[in-house]
Design a protein that fits this description.
Blueprint (H helix, E strand, L loop, with lengths): L1 E5 L10 H16 L4 E6 L13 E5 L7 H18 L4 E4 L12 E4 L4 H4 L7 H15 L2 E4 L2 H11 L6 E3 L13 H12 L4 E5 L8 H12 L6 E5 L7 H8 L7 E3 L5 H9 L3 E4 L8 H8 L4 E4 L4 H5 L4 E3 L4 H13 L1 H15 L4 H20 L2
Parallel strand pairs: 1-2, 1-4, 2-3, 4-5, 5-6, 6-7, 8-9, 8-11, 9-10, 11-12, 12-13
């Protein structure tokens, strides 16, 4: 079987959530299924370190998808032509976007519908994604997604039968582990002058609720002066509103913006934190939650969307729309060590539910379901 995989979110500079999902799952499947051929499709020259098995071939399809109209060209022209010419048995798109014109069976991995629930009104991509994802959901032979919440959400918004949607959870990378206390102190010395800190991990998109995190930390700092806040995310997505909220802070000297950092640095920062603060307005999964669990770090998360499903009883769940609720949870972490200990122990148990080997097996079953469903149609 020739399995063509959309890997355009794996770039020479690295990858974020979708790219990690793609790489972790398909490097495993290639090893587990050596009798099958995997073709990784990139939109620009790729690092050969991502070709991890002899049954993986990397191909570059033009054009690089730097703008919405180039994304459309990539899927509707280049991809359609490639699938026909190479006689693919299935196309797996790990960002959920598909060709509208191919007869090749297609499996769309739609991680979430954040662009519907918390649209970025300043982004030119919002309307594009709304239209394109609706088309892809209609075209897909099957859909995979990363949580039961997203499964219900996709079914409801796109009128797809639940029987056509498979759940393939994310997991934490193997390197997310606790650090020795002396290493944690070295990291604090490097980033926060030795002071303990809360950390947010992720992009600085509107739905990540950065402004309320800053406001909650400002309120906490009036009571607990020794703590810092680290925002570990790409500053390219920072809005003017975030900048205004930061500039209005009296304690802004205790806020550290790292911009984009390496996986090693991110692991070190997360594993050395007092707690992860992740009161997002909407998540289809929320990978930093389980990464914190793996590092034995307490978690504060939103009580909405998929986060209760992923966190279980191992996090403090708060109303993400309430700054005071976020601040109060941070205060609990500071003043109640028993809560921290209980959260850490619960997180150790909860994280075991998610691993990439299980996810790879679930993805393989989804691929087989897609092929079987197409053959029986």
């Amino acid at each position: 079987m020739k399995i063509v995989v959309n890997t355009r979110h794996i770039t020479p500079q690295g990858y974020d959530g979708i790219g990690r999902f793609t790489f972790e799952i398909f490097k495993r499947l290639a090893l587990q299924q050596p009798q099958h051929e995997f073709v990784f499709l990139f939109d620009r020259p790729f690092d050969k370190k991502y070709i991890t098995a002899s049954n993986i071939t990397g191909k570059v399809l033009f054009p690089p998808t730097k703008h919405a109209w180039l994304i459309k060209c990539w899927y509707q022209l280049s991809l359609t032509w490639f699938l026909k010419r190479n006689k693919a048995d299935i196309f797996v798109s790990t960002d959920g976007l598909l060709s509208n014109y191919t007869h090749t069976p297609q499996l769309a991995v739609i991680h979430d519908l954040n662009f519907i629930h918390v649209p970025d009104l300043k982004s030119s991509y919002t309307q594009f994604f709304k239209k394109f994802y609706a088309q892809s959901a209609s075209k897909a032979a099957r859909i995979a997604t990363v949580s039961q919440f997203s499964k219900q959400d996709i079914a409801g918004n796109y009128h797809v039968p639940l029987s056509k949607i498979d759940v393939v959870y994310n997991a934490a990378a193997d390197f997310y582990k606790p650090l020795p206390l002396h290493t944690q102190q070295e990291i604090r010395n490097q980033y926060t002058s030795g002071k303990p800190y809360f950390i947010f991990v992720g992009s600085l998109h509107q739905r990540k609720n950065i402004i309320r995190i800053l406001q909650a930390f400002e309120a906490l700092s009036s009571e607990q002066n020794q703590f810092h806040l680290v925002i570990a995310g790409n500053l390219r997505w920072a809005s003017q509103d975030i900048n205004k909220a930061y500039e209005a802070m009296q304690h802004k000297n205790k806020v550290v913006f790292t911009n984009r950092i390496s996986d090693t640095q991110l692991h070190q920062l997360l594993a050395s934190a007092k707690a992860l603060v992740y009161p997002s307005l909407f998540e289809g999964f929320g990978i930093p939650i389980i990464e914190a669990f793996a590092c034995h770090v307490p978690v504060i998360a939103g009580n909405n969307s998929a986060m209760p499903e992923i966190a279980g009883n191992a996090a403090l769940l708060v109303d993400a729309n309430c700054t005071e609720a976020i601040k109060n949870a941070m205060a609990q972490i500071v003043t109640q060590p028993d809560i921290c200990s209980n959260l850490i122990e619960s997180g150790k148990i909860r994280v075991q539910y998610f691993n990439w080997d299980k996810s790879a097996s679930a993805m393989w079953q989804s691929i087989l379901n897609t092929i079987s469903q197409t053959n029986n149609a």
